Amino acid sequence: MINRRNTLQKRSNLLKQVRAFFYARSVIEVDTPILSQAATPDVHLPSLNTQVQVPGNSEKQTYYLHTSPEYPMKRLLCEGSGDIFYLGKVFRDADLSPRHQIEFTMLEWYRIGFSMQDLIDEVIELVQVVMEQTMLIEKLSYQQAFAKYAQINDVFSASVEDYQACLTQNNIPQIIGVDKDDKDLWEQLVLTEVIEPHLGKDGLSVLYHFPAKDAALAQISVENPQVAERFELYVKGVELANGYHELADSDLYRQRFEASLKQREQLGLTQVPLDENLLTTLSNKTLPDCSGVALGIDRLFALQQNFENIQQGICFGIEEA
Amino acid sequence: MATYSTTDFKGGLKFLMDGQPCSIVENTQVRPGKGQAFNRVKYRNLVTGKMVENTFKAGEKVEAADVVETDLQYLYNDGEFWHFMDESSFEQYQAPESAVADVKKWLIEQDICTVTLFNGQPIAAVPPKQITLEVTDTDPGLKGDTAGTGGKPATLSTGAVVQVPLFVQIGEKVIVNTEKGEYVSRAK
Question: What is the pTM of this model?
Answer without folding.
Answer: 0.83
